[in-house]
Amino acid sequence: MRIIHDQSCIEEGAAWLGEREPRFAMAYEMAAPLKLRRFPDGYDRLLSSIVSQQVSVAAAETIWRRMEGQGLTTPDAVLAAEDTTLRAVGLSGQKVRYAKALAAEGIDYEGLRGLPTEDVIQKLIHVPGIGRWTAEMYAMTALGHADVFAPADLALQEGVRMLWDLPERPKERALREMAEAWSPWRAVAARILWGYYHVRKDREGVR
């Protein structure tokens, strides 16, 4: 299983993709250097993904800064906090429930590191608030898996729409099938598409 450790991995994957699909070569040239998008794994990374669900990147960053400022990013702190405290920093009632459910789950984060991508996803998606998009994003950005994609991501869908000049965004299933051709570097394809989205839209599509 290939792990993305540093920028050289991004460059290797981008070169591979560009040789097979000229659109990726063009998008990479426009968006380079790409963000590495590697973050420490653990509870706070999954919690951050929950915060990012169904809100803008700017709103998610604001909420997360408030949570960090009040020390509300660890399982113990979240479980000890009153619901009203968590709502005051910007979490919806549903996200408060998700944050506490995740904190109570007792996930073996270290044990996830050596598992194949699909095993990681299956271990996470049974937790309330952790859907496939969140699990795929965790495998990609926290564990560094090189061959994972998140086709439900709206910025990736829009990036593909623009780069392929499609009349509308591809749906999740269609994009998942499309991305199979980008294996074993699907996570680099995602980074190129996020970078391309940023250049074309002048805003970030993902935290």
How many distinct folded domains? 2
Total of DSSP H or I helical runs spanning 4+ residues:
13
Q: Oligomeric form of this entry?
A: single chain
Q: How much helix is in the residues?
A: 55-70%
Which class of the largest domain in CATH terms?
Mainly Alpha
SS strand fraction: under 5%
Spans where pLDDT lies below 50 across 5 or more residues: none
- Shape summary: globular
Coarse structural class: mainly alpha
Distance between the termini: 25 Å
CATH superfamily of the largest domain: Hypothetical protein, domain 2
The CATH topology of the largest domain: Endonuclease III, domain 1
The count of strands amounts to 0
Largest sheet: none
Helix and strand run: HHHHHHHHHHHHH
- The whole-angstrom Rg is 17 Å
**Name given to the CATH architecture of the largest domain:** Orthogonal Bundle
What integer is the average pLDDT?
96
Task: Give a structural overview.
The mean pLDDT is 96. With 207 residues, the chain is mainly alpha-helical. It has two domains: 7-38 and 147-201, Endonuclease Iii, domain 2 (Orthogonal Bundle); 43-134, Hypothetical protein, domain 2 (Endonuclease III, domain 1, Orthogonal Bundle), CATH 1.10.340.30. The chain is 62% helix and 0% strand.
Features:
2 domains, Endonuclease III, domain 1, 207 residues, mainly alpha, globular, Endonuclease Iii, domain 2
What topology does this entry show?
Elements: H1 7-20, H2 22-31, H3 43-52, H4 57-69, H5 75-80, H6 83-88, H7 93-105, H8 109-112, H9 117-124, H10 132-141, H11 154-163, H12 172-179, H13 186-201
Helix pairs in contact: 1-2, 1-13, 2-13, 3-7, 3-10, 9-10, 11-13
